[in-house]
Design a protein that fits this description.
Length: about 450
């Protein structure tokens, strides 16, 4: 079936002036709103499925202020710390490695990485940079690699927004930011059906090709004669998410972590040029169920640290191993000050047709004609704890990357809300399982957004 590649909506990067934050604990009065900008002009759709040419990228925010834990500024949209799209995000990793192996069309976007003939990416689901740094005793081997992170700079990279598994895996595998690959959240509205679509579980089922039409980096590498392989759980062999995000080359399903490390090393050695991906999920699972402050989570971290060392000790010659993650995680207390229940808040529900995303990164879809009122209400209710933006404001600010494809535009909420504080917007009736999780992620805070890029070379 032909898969049209949509055009892109530009994100010029204009940001509103900072507002004034209330000094009391009461809900602030509505802030004066500047005139809403006209939506970015739509570009015509193309019949090609070629990868998009990235537009000129805005200058990155200065690192010292971009990740300021003290939050000295009010929640103006310009104060949201943007992912390092184009210079140091998950979407830039595989293109950088593939460019070093002479794969056509790939660009070395992370300049600190030195090319290698054989490259392996080990993605540990849920292991953020801040969580790793906080647990040196549980992860002695990975801790020993922190100084060499990101090509010896000792710095992390960023996940991309939202910092959630489906979005991040698609960014890794396609080498594209969320606005291009089109998986911009945990659940998003399908504009063709009007239903919420869970992009992690792929429910309800949606044809994968039209949803994400771009080739993966693995496919492009395979076409260029590079040996490409994925080594992960057998359960992921034929899932739609694997198809749209990680397909290409050979798939090797292995149940145990030790088997995956051994097979990944074998696949690296299988050719003069190799690109191998392997994955471990249970750090994330332990964090969701028990929190990143739990003994269970620490036990998983100890186990995966041994896996990383096992793989590192088997690297064939001329190899580079990169250990990274799809997002970090924060524990949210179980009380009404930290967990706001959408299903019990009549103000937040007014005018809302669908609630998408997840507790720290919400997509809000308004009933027709109510988008402006919903935006105003959400800013009044949540504006001191969440960055709250209209769809066009979030796009223009660059939350989803430097541009958003036409087919992706209406998947993004009419209102987008990203948590800054240790707070969660749950939906106890609509999302009972997600609302009961201890550890959560999705937003642009350092604990969620920053991920390691540890390096071992042979």
């Amino acid at each position: 079936m032909p898969q049209p590649t949509p055009g892109a909506r530009p994100a010029p990067g204009a940001q509103p002036a900072p507002g004034v934050q209330s000094a009391s604990g009461a809900r602030p009065a509505p802030r004066p709103q500047a005139p809403r900008p006209a939506p970015p002009a739509r570009t015509p759709q193309s019949a090609s499925t070629a990868r998009p040419t990235p537009p000129a990228r805005p200058a990155p925010l200065p690192p010292p202020t971009a990740w300021d834990d003290a939050h000295p500024r009010p929640l103006a949209l310009g104060s949201a710390p943007l992912p390092e799209y184009g210079t140091g995000s998950l979407a830039d990793l595989l293109p950088t490695l593939a460019a070093g192996m002479a794969v056509p069309g790939m660009t070395a976007a992370i300049p600190e990485l030195i090319p290698a003939d054989r490259n392996c990416v080990f993605l540990i689901d849920g292991l953020g940079w801040e969580q790793l740094k906080a647990h040196p005793e549980e992860a002695p081997f990975m801790t020993s690699l922190l100084a060499a992170s990101r090509g010896g700079t000792g710095r992390p990279i960023t996940a991309g927004y939202p910092a959630t598994t489906a979005t991040s895996l698609a960014s890794v595998g396609t080498g594209l930011p969320p606005g291009a690959h089109g998986l911009p959240g945990y659940t998003v509205r399908n504009p063709d059906t009007g239903e919420l679509m869970n992009q992690l579980r792929w429910q309800p089922w949606t044809p994968p090709g039209p949803w994400q039409p771009y080739p993966t980096v693995f496919e492009l590498a395979h076409r260029a004669g590079v040996h490409a392989a994925q080594v992960t759980s057998p359960a992921f062999a034929n899932t739609p998410l694997t198809k749209v995000a990680l397909s290409g080359g050979s798939f090797h399903g292995r149940l145990s972590g030790e088997e995956r490390m051994d097979v990944a090393a074998e696949q690296l050695a299988a050719a003069d040029r190799s690109l191998v991906y392997t994955y471990y999920a249970e750090v994330d699972g332990a964090g969701h169920r028990f929190g990143v402050d739990s003994d269970t989570w620490r036990g998983q971290l100890m186990y995966v640290d041994r896996l990383v060392q096992r793989l590192a000790e088997q690297l064939p010659a001329r190899s580079a191993l990169y250990v990274t993650a799809d997002h970090g995680m924060v524990d949210i207390p179980f009380d009404e000050d930290h967990r706001i229940d959408f299903d019990e808040d009549w103000e937040l529900k007014a005018g809302v047709a669908l609630l998408g995303g997840e507790g720290r990164a919400r997509h809000v879809y308004a009933v027709p004609g109510a988008a402006d009122d919903v935006l105003t209400c959400w800013r009044e209710v949540l504006g001191e704890q969440f960055w709250v933006a209209s769809r066009d404001e979030a796009i223009e600010a660059g939350w989803f990357g430097p541009a958003v494809d036409e087919r992706v535009y209406h998947r993004i909420g009419d209102v987008v809300a990203a948590a800054r504080d240790d707070v969660l917007l749950i939906a106890s009736e609509r999302e009972p399982r997600e609302s009961a999780m201890v550890g959560n992620h999705g937003s642009m805070t350092p604990a969620e957004q920053l991920v390691p890029l540890l390096e071992v070379r042979s």
